[in-house]
């Protein structure tokens, strides 16, 4: 019955029945809209016009600080706020002024309350815009961008009704140009867009210069802002300063590569810090690995800093917050603070002197863990009220020892450490958008320099999981060996598989920086890797499933030395030498006794060339074992220029090294292994049983004998391979990085 009443109430606001039913599915939105409509009815009666209903819906769906609902509804119901621009200004005002009480005079001025825009003013503004663009209008007529006229009129008359402006534009344009003619209905020819360079595309959105922080949308100005920015510019000398703030409790993955490239790439002409919020001694290995991966990707941080470097200053600022009445000691337990709308703290208005004494007691260890916290007096963008600044924790810090038993939270530390280090651009992933208001608020509350915070979307890949918890499950169940298993998309795993850092960086550049989360196909990353390896990985020959071939008329008494180009497309890059003897080994799949149509390699009556030798071999005899399996072939050879050119040339090895080759495929069978609708049994049920095949007795030519871990080669016709750290003096181990673009079974 209550649902029917709400449905009737919502449709009475002008919502369609379908929209009203969708709204009812969102409990938070429907509760706010119900409260707003009920309050408005107390002023307007049971019937609410559609325009007011639209504003009430916009308010309920966009308001984060629910404490302001009643205040804003009163302005809408009394028609003091009656347009969408006024509502947007009101929402921005309450977001940027979270503290009580609201200055109503300032609020009304900022929201255009009481401002009347007459039809005559609209007429004059539209006429001025049309006169400005009159020559172009007369040429382009109705193909002219009329939105430009409306935008210029709106810029002059901020609080004018948009529909009235549009109607006035339509009328005046019709008066100037007359009715549309047939030529006006033709589409305007498209102008080719200028293609931005890769680096320009990545940063085209972020055009605010250092020192112009106040131009950032949502940036809160104070009387001290401009002076603080001036001091900041004097200290930095106009440098761009960013920081990469990894959480040192896991290994970096492909998504972090985007963050590293954005932070270091944006500051490439200036400096980038690596900043660690807080980590335990046992996590030091992760932090070391993070620094190693940053260096591997080709970046050098200006400085590595830690939140613990600034514990004394952070504590002093916390005391100052209390003195300014902007923080208080609270005794609510953690479970009481959970949920979207926890009850306000009963200690919020305790005297400043009392909070100072209690905070000092927290520092001296007079409270147990969870018994007291320091909270800041603000409402965050997601509606969370009074976030915690300090907690009691009796855990020695591996850098400061037992000096502290209270530790600052991320919400408190992040912006203040950025301010201390004069970071110009705090670049964060999208989930930190809800913390932007607290970031600006805290710097301004303490009258310290406030950097810019920008958010961008995460980078994910299909057929992958990257969360620490899930990778640990994969390791625990034996699905993968460790964090650096080449089937994973951690950076250590990609390095072990043989992905060059330039390929990863190029991939991140192609993906670019967007606000929306990006999920890419792995083959796009592999294409960037191939582009790099094609120019950097020297060629060698290897045989995975070998078949012995005896050349019965070998043209020399002993083996020949064959010069093989390291890069066949550019022989200036040098050669390496391989032996060519009477016994060679070829891929078993390069021979067929009974070939199917289209098979071009070795068969009865079908000779084949041996790459780089200048010789062609022709089958004479097939030697089989007791089981009927082909054990070897006997062939004769001739010079390639002494007869008809063969249909194909195949790779081979002679006097080879025995090695182990690991062939990797996707770890998961479905695109989204974490999606319960796609994989109901969970990601562990989606493992690909063929994700790893080990060839323990592969053969490779002797040119790679001195290869070291992470050296990369292209094994001709097979793919790109990298030397694995498991290699030892007796046996090399190769990981297949990626296949060649072509089908490796074709020549």
TrEMBL record:
Main location, first listed in the record: cytoplasm
One GO BP annotation of this record: glutaminyl-tRNA aminoacylation
GO molecular function: ATP binding; glutamine-tRNA ligase activity
Keywords: Acetylation, Aminoacyl-tRNA synthetase, ATP-binding, Cytoplasm, Ligase, Nucleotide-binding, Phosphoprotein, Protein biosynthesis
EC number: 6.1.1.18
InterPro entries: aa-tRNA-synth_I_CS, Gln-tRNA-synth, Gln-tRNA-synth_Ib_RNA-bd_2, Gln-tRNA-synth_Ib_RNA-bd_N, Gln-tRNA-synth_Ib_RNA-bd_N_1, Gln-tRNA-synth_Ib_RNA-bd_N_2, Gln/Glu-tRNA_Ligase, Glu/Gln-tRNA-synth
Localisation: Cytoplasm, Cytosol
Enzyme class: ligase
Domain Glutaminyl-tRNA synthetase class Ib non-specific RNA-binding residues, every copy: 7-162, 165-200
Annotated Gene Ontology cellular component terms: aminoacyl-tRNA synthetase multienzyme complex; cytosol
Glutamyl/glutaminyl-tRNA synthetase class Ib catalytic domain location: 239-534
Pfam family, one: tRNA-synt_1c_C
Role: Glutamine--tRNA ligase. Plays a critical role in brain development.
Assembly and interaction partners: Monomer. Part of a multisubunit complex that groups tRNA ligases for Arg (RARS1), Asp (DARS1), Gln (QARS1), Ile (IARS1), Leu (LARS1), Lys (KARS1), Met (MARS1) the bifunctional ligase for Glu and Pro (EPRS1) and the auxiliary subunits AIMP1/p43, AIMP2/p38 and EEF1E1/p18. Interacts with RARS1. Part of a complex composed of RARS1, QARS1 and AIMP1.
Protein name as annotated: Glutamine--tRNA ligase
């Amino acid at each position: 019955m209550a649902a029917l009443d709400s449905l009737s109430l919502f449709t009475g606001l002008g919502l369609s029945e379908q929209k009203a039913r969708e709204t009812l599915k969102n409990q938070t939105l429907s509760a706010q809209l119900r409260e707003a409509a009920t309050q408005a009815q107390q002023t307007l009666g049971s019937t609410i016009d559609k325009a007011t209903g639209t504003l009430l819906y916009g308010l309920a769906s966009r308001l984060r600080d629910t404490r302001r609902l009643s205040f804003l509804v009163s302005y809408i119901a009394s028609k003091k706020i009656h347009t969408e621009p006024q509502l947007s200004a009101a929402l921005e005002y309450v977001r940027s002024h979270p503290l009580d009480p609201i200055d109503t005079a300032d609020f009304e001025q900022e929201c255009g309350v009481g401002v009347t825009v007459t039809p005559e003013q609209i007429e004059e503004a539209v006429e001025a815009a049309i006169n400005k663009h009159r020559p172009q209008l007369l040429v382009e007529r109705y193909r002219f961008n009329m939105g430009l006229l409306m935008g210029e009129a709106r810029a002059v008359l901020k609080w004018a009704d948009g529909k009235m402006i549009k109607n006035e534009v339509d009328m005046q344009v019709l008066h100037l140009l007359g009715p549309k003619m047939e030529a006006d209905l033709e589409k305007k020819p498209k102008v080719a867009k200028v293609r931005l360079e890769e680096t320009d595309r990545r940063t085209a959105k972020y055009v605010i210069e250092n020192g112009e922080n106040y131009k950032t949308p949502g940036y809160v100005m104070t009387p001290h802002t401009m002076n603080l920015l001036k001091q900041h510019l004097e200290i930095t000398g106009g440098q761009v300063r960013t920081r990469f703030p990894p959480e040192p409790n896991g290994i970096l993955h492909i998504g972090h590569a985007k963050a590293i490239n954005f932070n270091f790439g944006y500051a490439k002409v200036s400096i980038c810090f690596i900043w660690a919020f807080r980590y335990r001694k046992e996590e030091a290995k992760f932090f070391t690995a993070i620094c190693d991966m940053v260096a591997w990707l080709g970046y050098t941080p200006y400085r590595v800093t830690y939140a613990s470097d600034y514990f004394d200053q952070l504590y002093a600022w916390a005391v100052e917050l209390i003195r300014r009445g902007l923080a208080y000691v609270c005794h609510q337990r953690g479970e009481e603070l959970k949920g979207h709308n926890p009850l306000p703290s009963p200690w919020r208005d305790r005297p400043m002197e009392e909070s100072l004494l209690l905070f000092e007691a927290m520092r001296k260890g007079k409270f147990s863990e969870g018994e007291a916290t320091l909270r800041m007096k603000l409402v965050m963008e997601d509606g969370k009220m009074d976030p915690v600044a300090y907690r009691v924790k009796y855990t020695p810090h591996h850098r400061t020892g037992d000096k502290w038993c209270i530790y600052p939270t991320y919400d408190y530390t992040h912006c203040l450490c950025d301010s201390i280090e004069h970071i110009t651009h705090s670049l964060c992933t999208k989930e930190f958008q809800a913390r932007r208001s607290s970031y600006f608020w805290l710097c301004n509350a303490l009258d310290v320099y406030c950097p810019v915070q920008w958010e961008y979307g995460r980078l994910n890949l299909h057929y992958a999981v990257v969360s620490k918890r899930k990778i640990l499950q994969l390791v625990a169940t034996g699905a993968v060996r460790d964090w650096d298993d080449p089937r994973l998309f951690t950076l250590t795993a990609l390095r072990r598989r043989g992905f060059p850092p330039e390929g990863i960086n190029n991939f991140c550049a192609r993906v670019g920086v967007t606000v929306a989360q990006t999920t890419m196909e792995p083959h796009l990353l592999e294409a960037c890797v191939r582009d790099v390896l094609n120019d950097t990985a020297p060629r060698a020959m290897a045989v995975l499933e070998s078949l012995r071939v005896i050349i019965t008329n070998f043209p020399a008494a002993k083996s020949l030395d064959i010069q093989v180009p390291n890069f066949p497309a550019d022989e200036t890059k040098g050669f390496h030498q391989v032996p060519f003897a009477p016994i060679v080994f070829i891929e078993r799949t390069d021979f067929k006794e009974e070939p199917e149509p289209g098979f071009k390699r070795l068969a009865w009556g079908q000779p084949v060339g041996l790459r780089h030798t200048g010789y062609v071999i022709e089958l004479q005899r097939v030697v089989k074992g007791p089981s009927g399996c082909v054990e070897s072939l006997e062939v004769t050879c001739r010079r390639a220029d002494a007869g008809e050119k063969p249909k194909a040339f195949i790779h081979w090895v002679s006097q080879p090294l025995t090695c182990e080759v690991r062939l990797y495929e996707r770890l998961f069978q479905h695109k989204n292994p974490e999606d319960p609708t796609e994989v109901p049994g969970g990601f562990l049920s989606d493992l690909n049983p063929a994700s790893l095949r080990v060839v323990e007795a592969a053969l490779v030519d002797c040119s790679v004998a001195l290869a070291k871990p992470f050296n990369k080669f292209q094994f001709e016709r097979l793919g790109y391979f990298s030397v694995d750290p498991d290699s030892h003096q007796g046996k090399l181990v190769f990981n297949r990085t990626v296949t060649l673009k072509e089908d490796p079974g074709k020549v």
